[in-house]
Amino acid sequence: MKEQYDLVVIGGGSGGVAASRRAAEYGAHVAIIEQGRMGGTCVNVGCIPKKIMWYAENLVHELNEAPEYGFDVSVRGQDWAELKRRREAYVRRLNNIYENNLAANNVRIIQGEGHFENSNTVQVGDLSLTAPHIIIATGGEPKVPSLVGAELGITSDGFFDLSERPARVALVGSGYVGVELAAVLAALGSEVSICVRYDSLLRSFDEMLQQAVIGALESDGVVLNWCAMIERVEKIANGLMLHTEDQRSVGPVDTVIWAVGRRPLTASLDLNNTGVLCDEDGFIPVDDYQATNVDGVYAIGDVTGRLALTPVAIAAGRRLSDRLFGGMSDRHLDYTNVPTVVFTHPPVGTIGLTESKARALYGDEVRTYTAKFVPLSYSVSTRESEAQIKLLTRGEEETVIGIHLFGPASDEMLQGFAVAVRMGATKKDFDDTVAIHPTSAEELVLMR
C-alpha cells in the first residue's frame, strides 16, 4: 500500500514528535514512524525517569538533615519496587499523552521500523510512505564496549529495568549518566564505585564544576577510580570483578553499569538507498538548517552527533518545521549558548564557555568572577558543603560569556540567566539588577 504525505518523520522521540506537531499545526499532512514506545529515550529511559530517581535521592538527603531542623524522623528504608512501579506508571501516562497530542494534531502514528526505499520513500512493513520532506529522528542507544565480559554489565536502559537496588555497583564512565546514576545509587544505600577513564570527570565542563562534583561524590561515599581503562569483566563466586589495563581490580560488585557514551540508531535505516552520508561512528552530519547532503532528507537530535539534549532536539525539530511549512526561510537553531544541567547532589548548571575555552579564544579579554558560600538551607545542619558560582565576561563591555553553578537549585536557577546570556547581557546589567534576598541566585548579581 502506498501513502503520500507532506512530511514523514522516522522516530517518535521528543524531537520527532515536536517536528511532527509543529508541521501539522501549519496544515501539513504528517506521518510519524515509531517502533517502540512514544517519547523516545527522554520519556522512557532518560530524563524523566532519571529525574524521578533524583527526587528520591534528594529526599534521602533532606530526611537525613531533618533532625537538625528539630524533626523526629529517620530514614528506615526505601521501597525500590514501589518507586519503580510509580515511576513506570508516570512514564506510561506520558506515552499516552504523546500519542493523544499527535492525534489531536492529526498526525498519523505508524507503529513499526522504517527503512528507506529511496530519498523520498520510507517502507514500514507493507506500507510505502512518500513525502518531499523526510526527517530522521531515530536517536541513539547506550554503547556497550567491546571487551571480555561486557555482556555481564547493563546500560542505563537496564538500570531502569532493575527490580531491586543492587547493593554494590560499579559504573564505567564519568559523563552525565555515570555521575548522575552514581549519586542516586549512593544516596539510596548502594556501595558505588566509578571507573573514570581519564584524570577527571565531566571533562567538557568548567574545571570548577569538575572539582565540585568530585568533592560531592566522595563526600557521599562514592569511590572514584582514576585512569581506569577496563580490560575485562569477570564473574566470580560473590559477584563481578572489573580488571583494568594496568592490572588493577575493582570489585566485587553485584552490578556493572556501562556509561561509556551512546551510538546513533542509523544502521537499520538503509541509508545507502538514499545517498545520505554518515560519519565513521554512524552519526548523520547536517548543516545549520538540519539538512543532510541529500535534498529533502533532514536529521535532528542525537542521531546528528551534536548536543545530545532533549530540548535541543525539540528546538531543532520545531525550527525545521517552521522553515519547511511556516514560511520562515531562515529559521534554524543556534547551537551556541545552550544551557545544561547535571543532576548530581547538589546539581550543576552551566551555559556558555568554560574558563579554559574562554581564555584560549579571548586571552586577556576574559575576566573571571567567583563566589563560594554556604547555602542558607545548610545553616543549621552539619552538612559541610559550599555552593560555588563562576561568571566569565569578555572585553571592556564585560559581556557575559559563561555562567557555571554548583549548589542547591542550580538547575532551576540557570534558566532565567540563560535568557540573559542569550540576549548579550553585560556584567553591568547584572550589577544593576536588584537582588532577591535571601537566595543563592542573588550571588550572581552581587559578584565583585
Automatic annotation (TrEMBL):
Identification of the protein by name: Glutathione-disulfide reductase
Stretches assigned to the FAD/NAD(P)-binding domain: 5-317
Keyword match Zinc: no
A GO BP annotation: glutathione metabolic process
Coiled coil: none
Record organism: marine metagenome
Single annotated GO MF: glutathione-disulfide reductase (NADPH) activity
Acetylation in keyword set: no
Cofactor: FAD
Key words, A-Z: Disulfide bond, FAD, Flavoprotein, Oxidoreductase, Redox-active center
